[in-house]
Amino acid sequence: MGGSIGGGREADDIDREAARLRHDLVSALVAAGALPDPAWRAAFEEVPRHLFVPRFYDPSGLRIDRHDHPDLWLRGVHEDRALVTHRRGGEAVSSSSQPSLMASMLHDLEVRDGDRVLEIGTGTGWNAALLAHRVGDHRVTSVDLDPELTAAARAHLAAAGRRPRVVTADGSMGWPAEAPYDRIIATCRIDSVPLPWLRQLMVDGVMVAPLGYAVIQLRRTGPDRAEGRFRGGAWFMPLRTGRSRPEAPVVEPDADDPGRPAELTPRAATDPDFRFWADLCEPGVEWRMDPEPGSGPGAVALRGPDGSTARLGRDGMVVEAGPRRLWTEVERLYRVWDERGRPGPERFGVTVEGRRQWLWIDSPDGPGHELGEPVDAVRPG
Ligand SMILES: C[S@@+](CC[C@H](N)C(=O)[O-])C[C@H]1O[C@@H](n2cnc3c(N)ncnc32)[C@H](O)[C@@H]1O
């Protein structure tokens, strides 16, 4: 990129430079096989991501604004990476997802002309704009929990000449007012399939969402049934429900508890494919790793939503405290995963039948695991 785009350069110059950089990014995505469909290729070429990301935070937390760091900003917006756009209390609360990941999720969504699409997680509005480019503004509804984000997204969309419906609401309930949808896409992480989403999806409709740390493509196969497989690993911010449970007090192990020898080393337990399975089976369990310099994972500490804790020390001894034996659960999950040949996300799938949903390996009849209590509008009792 020649010269600085700051110092009073006109918006037209920025738009021209952005179009050139966008073309380079799209060419790289096409060369990598990430945009096989010409309709999506056109959307990525023509939707100006820079209008949706006026600033972002780099990995060190430095705010890269189009006015303060114009060159870094324009370059960053046209790289194939996720960009954190909003932070609150030191935590990232919204981002613009990585272009190649969005391309693959949109591909898996199998969108057809005329489809009506619901997106959960508007964020910057960039993905809503891609969808609106593909099927038309009036066929896209996008929901975000955060009014500040939806206001900004509407402004970005208007600047890009797009007007999909942007709604401020808790997307865990979907958006019944515009249902049914042919397609539903979520860009925030869930740990079980929200039943309202499936009810709002047409029979034979497709839903694509980050379920745990991988993207699943689910098809609604009947009034009460959906099934699908995972497509590959992905990291997304969690769906925030606003219905936070009271934090359970943390149960610390007795200081003089010598513990027991662990069956698993920290290295084995932190294998990303194992963690994918373990995280889905044990939603809400927080893992903390104290890395040993130069030698991979060292000590591991777990904390469950009910306050249970487990700690695996560098001496190979594990101590557990609280109502759940968290490390014992991890060891049991590891045995199942190991016996099945250590599958990665692509060998897993999910079936939903009525209120039941389970995760399976290789086939719906294979060994499985019930997923957590479904998020639902109607709770018995
Ligand atoms: C990775 S960002 C979405 C990126 C966005 N699709 C884009 O193109 O910029 C995840 C978004 O999910 C939103 N989110 C989290 N919980 C939500 C909920 N319960 N309902 C709706 N949106 C939610 C966050 O506010 C955040 O903006």
UniProtKB/TrEMBL annotation:
A Gene Ontology MF term for this entry? protein-L-isoaspartate (D-aspartate) O-methyltransferase activity
Matching entries from SUPFAM superfamilies are given as: S-adenosyl-L-methionine-dependent methyltransferases
Gene Ontology cellular-component terms listed? cytoplasm
GO biological process assignments? methylation
* UniProt-annotated location(s): Cytoplasm
Q: Which InterPro entries match?
A: PCMT, SAM-dependent_MTases_sf
E.C. number: 2.1.1.77
Disordered: annotated segments:
241-267, 362-381
Q: What is its main location?
A: cytoplasm
Q: Which UniProt keywords apply?
A: Cytoplasm, Methyltransferase, S-adenosyl-L-methionine, Transferase
Q: Which domain of life is it from?
A: Bacteria
Q: Of which family is this protein a member?
A: Belongs to the methyltransferase superfamily. L-isoaspartyl/D-aspartyl protein methyltransferase family.
Question: Protein name, please?
Answer: Protein-L-isoaspartate O-methyltransferase
Which species does this protein come from? Streptomyces calidiresistens
